[in-house]
């Protein structure tokens, strides 16, 4: 008995130690980026800025928010996230519902068809040619339509729906409900945990997307925030090679902005909004992913 209790305590200590270590490894780099973005360039060049800013300033953020390209990129990203994520969840759910019905004709064949698309694709060039043939290049629709369906998330939602009691659907049909009524008024409310989880993952995907904006759009009005951030990081990468001379000049001019602080501030502007969404949907994660991932 005593040995079992001692072993349990040792196990808990090891688990907590690993969790704390993972937290520090993931959180400290993010925190350091925030600290550097709030520190003046004149002080940053001296080094030793890790856990808190020595010379607190918001000049880097002011410089970022004055940039019309960044503000436009933020608007495009917010718009594609607010439109694309709910539409994607709706399409995924509407496909998962019939595939979860055991009386669907050719159910196994349809499931294999969609699973096949997870492993095989035509590649980037055929994909670009399809988008061009559909007149989607350099349009806002290129952010929404190609990403409406995610087969992996569809399988999770479908498995979740398969675990719902069939008696609920049968009683609804007895009362005269059709498939649309059952889907919108019964199935979707019961699948809220998994839909919230999938919706958040899709929102994160839209928020962090940059390649489609980089490869399929030419107009500056259609560049997303992440694409603008990539541009900023590339622009200031060269500046980082001569950062020492720049810092000396900034020190003489009392300039609180440099290539490093601008890059850190731009990273925080692109990251913080989506991070702030997590606490509101965290309660759905465990239930949504575990119930949707295990087939009874």
From TrEMBL:
Limits of the ABC transmembrane type-1 domain: 74-281
GO biological process entries: transmembrane transport
Q: Which GO terms describe its cellular component?
A: plasma membrane
**Where are the bilayer-spanning segments?**
13-34, 81-100, 112-131, 143-161, 182-204, 262-281
The alphabetized UniProt keywords are: Cell membrane, Membrane, Transmembrane, Transmembrane helix, Transport
Q: Keyword Transport, does the record have it? A: yes
Record membrane topology = Multi-pass membrane protein
Q: Subcellular location, in the record's words? A: Cell membrane
Q: Could you confirm whether the keyword Transmembrane appears in this record?
A: yes
Q: What is this protein called?
A: Carbohydrate ABC transporter membrane protein 2 (CUT1 family)
Which organism does this sequence originate in? Paenibacillus pabuli
